[in-house]
Specification:
This protein is α+β, with helices and mostly antiparallel strands and 286 residues long. It has helices spanning 2-10, 12-29, 34-61, 63-83, 270-284, and strands at residues 96-99, 109-123, 129-134, 147-149, 154-161, 166-173, 178-181, 187-191, 200-206, 216-219, 230-240, 245-252, 261-267. It contains 5 helices and 13 strands.
Length: 286
């Protein structure tokens, strides 16, 4: 104990200097300045390499479960192909997503989505805002705001990238709401309350809307996700009589505790849409 105290006294100035340096770096990193972005990018590179080594070990022991998941996904894809066998599609089906119209007189339109596979090398589920580190980065064409989905459903959105890695904010985050719809077309937002990783909520649904246990909730065209990606399944509803509204409690479609592989989705029309909507907003502010 005496030696420890002598050590602290001898190197007090150096220890204090290092602590202040760490505090400064953290404060800069949490801002949106150029220096903050550089720090986040560098941190992604260093942490990404560390997470990759750890994930490689877990990956080896999880091969059987992963194979089972791939088999299930292939069965689902075959089922969907059978359903759309009679629909005319573009030649490159891996890069196009058909927006089906009920009215046969309206031409079938396409939104150009490009899917890239990625492996999860780090994932949190217990924080207020949870993040997922992926082994794909800028050299693979990954950009900020791309959607991330799994074979089961919605996962999150890319928020940081480095050359070889990227980080996505999970739907299990209080600051990440997702535009969603019920099977009857009712639109709302799904969010996470920051407690249970197995529960999402969809609030402000009118009482007159009939919702039942087992109903599925999907993404909409209003979000960064492709449309009709499953978000979750309703397992409970709660009525707020004073407001004539109800709250839906969902089980996430994606099992975040067992997440190993994902798809990073690039919307080829996102830039054009963002530019157009930005011009409209700018015009309204004049």
């Amino acid at each position: 104990m005496r030696n420890f105290i002598l050590f602290i006294r001898r190197f007090f100035n150096l220890i204090l200097f290092l602590l202040l340096e760490v505090v400064c770096i953290v404060l800069i990193g949490r801002t949106n300045t150029l220096q903050g972005n550089d720090i986040m990018s560098s941190a992604n590179i260093v942490l990404g390499s560390m997470y990759k080594q750890r994930a490689d070990v877990a990956y080896y022991f999880g091969l059987k479960r992963m194979n089972d998941s791939l088999v299930s996904e292939n069965v689902e894809l075959r089922r969907q192909l059978a359903e759309y066998a009679g629909v005319d599609t573009l030649a490159d089906s891996s890069a196009t997503y058909a927006i089906i119209r009920r009215d046969s007189t309206v031409p079938v339109k396409y939104a150009a989505y490009y899917y890239r596979t990625a492996r999860v090398i780090n994932n949190t589920v217990g924080a207020v805002n949870n993040y997922i580190t992926l082994n794909r980065g800028e050299k693979d064409g990954i950009k900020k705001d791309m959607a991330v989905i799994s074979a089961e459903g919605a996962v999150g959105r890319i928020v940081h990238t480095s050359r070889n890695f990227s980080t996505a904010i999970s739907v299990l985050s209080k600051k990440q709401q997702v535009s969603a719809r019920l099977k009857d077309g009712t639109i709302g937002y799904v969010s996470w309350e920051g407690r249970d990783a197995n529960t999402l909520v969809m609030k402000n649904i009118p009482n007159q809307i009939k919702v039942y246990k087992g109903d599925t909730v999907y993404t909409t065209d209003y979000s960064f996700f492709p449309t009709d990606v499953m978000i979750g399944i309703v397992y409970k509803t709660a009525i707020i009589k004073s407001k004539n509204l109800q709250v839906l409690y969902l089980r996430p479609a994606t099992n975040f505790r067992r997440l190993q592989y994902v798809y990073i989705v690039e919307n080829k029309m996102a830039a054009e849409r963002k530019q157009l909507e930005g011009a409209v907003a700018e015009e309204d502010n004049k």
